[in-house]
Amino acid sequence: MSTIKQVKAREILDSRGNPTLEVEITLNSNIRGWAAVPSGASTGKHEAIELRDKDNARLDGLGVLKAVANVNREIAPALIGMTITDQTAIDNRLLELDGTTNKSRLGANAILGASLATAHAAANLLQMPLYRYLGKVDSYTMPVPMLNILNGGRHAAGSTDFQEFMVMPAGARDFHHALQISAEVYHCLKRVLNERKLNTNIGDEGGFAPQLASNRQAVELILIAIEQAGYKPGKDCFIALDPAASEFYQDGKYIMAREGVSLSPQEMVDYYASWASDYPIISIEDGMAEDDWDGWQLMMKKLGDKIQIVGDDLYVTNIDRLNKGIRLGASNAILIKPNQIGTLTETIAVIQRAKQAGWNTVVSHRSGETRDTTIADLAVGQGTGQIKSGAPCRSERTAKYNRLLQIEDELGKQACFAEMSVFRNLKK
Prior knowledge:
- It contains 13 helices and 16 strands.
- The chain is of the alpha/beta class.
- The strands form 4 sheets. Strands 5-6-7-11-12-13-14-15 form an 8-stranded mixed β-barrel, surrounded by 6 helices. The chain has a 3-stranded antiparallel beta sheet with strand order 1-2-3. Strands 8-9-10 form a 3-stranded antiparallel beta sheet.
- Strand 1 and strand 2 form a beta hairpin.
- The protein is globular, with a radius of gyration of 21 Å.
- It starts with a strand and ends in an 11-residue tail after the last strand.
């Protein structure tokens, strides 16, 4: 009764009101598994292909009916009758069926929906939560959250050059306490912005999107909010950045319009170094452009033992690009986004390879999200130690955090909060 009887996809809307898809798998026992696929706004050019209809007469060309049809007409017949608990065989079948290196024929969104729904159905069949199915260990690490509380770049037009200014409550006692700290800082930041008559509208990921005079001002406002919430910056709560540097990289230069500067890769690294000496910054993601490998190496040499250097657009959850980064020493951490690569099996392989190299791993959401909470279970089941899911605001973001609260309660003494130990490759 553990074989697949039906695979069905449909078009739904994501958190930005754009189309995406969900997939439901039904077993011969009538047990079901469901998953929905997110979508990014700031995407790396090396990501697996998200299939869109490009029919401008419907939903601005963003419809996913082609991807839905690929699930219902090609993927479904190929998976029916397969054993649901053999995730690797199912994912390999999906890859063989697509037959391209970047999932461009069936679409990474179609493939991922089927892959994740498979895992949910298998966990439901075995009557265990998804994190246990994905982990099967005796103790579990609850991740330190990265919360994007001030949005800029592609996520909030007219705000800062840098895309994300995040808080990391790594000094918390447990995940419940970490989320409490984050929520309190978030609401204090709103008061700080209001007091300065700055905009408190929110961006795609729930963070505030004020028009600021500089990128530094964003960090300084967050530090005020941390202190007003009753916490100590650099002890209870740290700053993490995602500049998304590929977005302002042109012809070998990093051009920041808000700052009015054009910097060489070395100057960009020095810019970050000055910030790291002035502020309690613990992590910088995508500080250099996605193909500026030399710039990444410069950044690692200058800052790699002081802060976490995270590659996102650089690696796009692709094991070949990760292996190149390991060989070059381009960073010490990787962001994990399942929809960048297309299957759960490939995603887990990247997590395990990064860990083998001694790197940190951060499971992440996308700017276009759904109520699907798979990444919360993935972070716990695979012990990544960190998760990034936006601000403590908007239900598609808080769904992931609330799922982690449930998991921590369920695990009880089996749960261990990562705290500062998650930054094991930094000098104390």
